[in-house]
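Collaborator request log, item 7. Partner lab (contact: R.S.) asked for a structural prediction of Inner membrane component domain-containing protein to inform their binding assays.
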Amino acid sequence: MRLILNILWFVFGSGFVLAIAYGIAALICFALIITIPFGVAALRLAVYSLWPFGRTIVSRPDAGVASGIANVLWVVVAGWWLALSHIAAGIAQCVTIIGIPFGIANFKLVPAAFWPLGREIVDLD
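Returned to partner:
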């Protein structure tokens, strides 16, 4: 079932578009050198937005103070509007019965988009 939902998400649920957008953001962050940690976080979001079903986000226990400070900077610059866009897309997709799983996938992306550093994506198994 997860495979079917992931394929449908990739094609119809904006998974491909989100992955491209996060990938472009990562390339820009890598080009600016000082923002490389944000580029790594954007790549993590790109991979997660490609196949969100069957995976979840967990906090890394070894995340330190630097990732917390960088997350505060991320929230100010990009995190709040990324989280709001995922919430708005999730609400819009939950309007129809067919779109409810896609809306839930967008809601799963909110914490990662808001506070990405110090987290990792793991399989549910």
